[in-house]
Task: structure prediction
Amino acid sequence: MNVLQASFPYAEQLKRYQQALRYSKLDELLAHPEDMPVFNGVDVQRKLYRPLRKGSSEPGELVEDWTSLDLAANSQELRAVKLYYDEDPVDLKRVELHEDHLLNMPLPHAIAGKYPDMKLKTIKESIDKMKKQDAKAASLPPPKSKFMGDANPFKRDSAPDAKFYNSGPGGFMPQTGGKNKPADPGNTNTNSQPLPPDNIYVRAYDTDVRDGLIHEYRMRVKLKNPNYGKRDLVSKKSDADPEELPPLEEHWFVFSQKVSVPQGGYTYVVEPNITGKVAYELKTPREGQAVLQFQRWYEYVDVSEGVREPVGDWVIAEMLATRGMFVSGKAFSPLPFWDSVENAFVLREIPGDKAVKGKEPRRGVILEPVRPKSLLVVDVAGGKETRRIGPNPGEGRVNRQPSSTDESAAEVLFMYPDGSLDLHSSAVDKADADRKAREDTFNTWVKDTAEKNPAAPPKKGKEDFP
Result:
């Protein structure tokens, strides 16, 4: 997924509220929590481009113009299966408004890897300023308003501990009784109460990323209408009707960084590796044929009818391609599966596979690595070719003509549905470092599984894993 991090000028927003509500000083606004800005989440839009050229991170053809993201629907599946949310650092909570403002989508716990670091200069400066005001305060309060957030993707399992400028000791909201605690010696603020942060942290993420495309984003925050329902207090009655202030075109902030998402699958031309030991191996390519290797990222695979297994990794399979034909059909992959009984990965026999005398049974899965009619083989050249040697000039025809076998790198010219062409060579693909790294990782996984764990029988019955 792509994580979007932004900084919003909160102190400037408070100043505008102060002026609009005719308060002479900021302290007067802070003394009326019900008049403080209440946010209503963010709008996020996305543009999609094709890369300018293969392997490029520069945008080329526009695929999709600005389109709004439904953040709740976009992240629903991820939030449904999360283990828990990762806690933000304590310092960052100083500049995060309460979840009811809907400005920070919590990050589901990362099983592997790590989320991007926060590198926003204005946010770091705001954190430093807040720490000088009160080194112990850690997070911000919920909005004092009848407008509250709902259980959408900004909702956490439990709300942040609101200790910062809430009412009570150490907060800038007025107390119901007693006095504020003495100012911190390192506090540069001359007021008796801490000031709110200059900038607040905003975060959203897009899980619906598109393979092989360049993503551009823009974002704007939304505000609740402070005059909503106050028809008796406004000069123009209609100003109290909308629940939200109208977002304007100039409110959009376009992220300068565009994100190039790698492909979720790759197709390569490789040299045949036929051992003759395993049942139903690929046949030796004839003239006009080549072996294709597919490397695809699978969230899950359908093992058989009603049986779906989670994967979440790169899966490798190979199949033959023939000149002038679409690449289609099923392919075998020696994919290990997790077995909850063995508490380990195992290689399962393929359901319905018939035994072949003297051959090892196939263990793994049969899958369809390429969509029908999406990859056309225009031409195939090279590979292993056998040619008849004709008679020398002047010699008559002989019954037995000698033959010559040549073997060179196989070359395949592909055509995609949009009409674009792509030429692959087995010599070039063999040397591709990324291809080899994924292949080595997969083969090591298969080898380790075969050595450590016994083969398991195929699963039966209808099961489904989210």
Remarks:
- The two ends are 18 Å apart (CA to CA).
- Residues 144 and 341 are 52 Å apart (CA to CA).
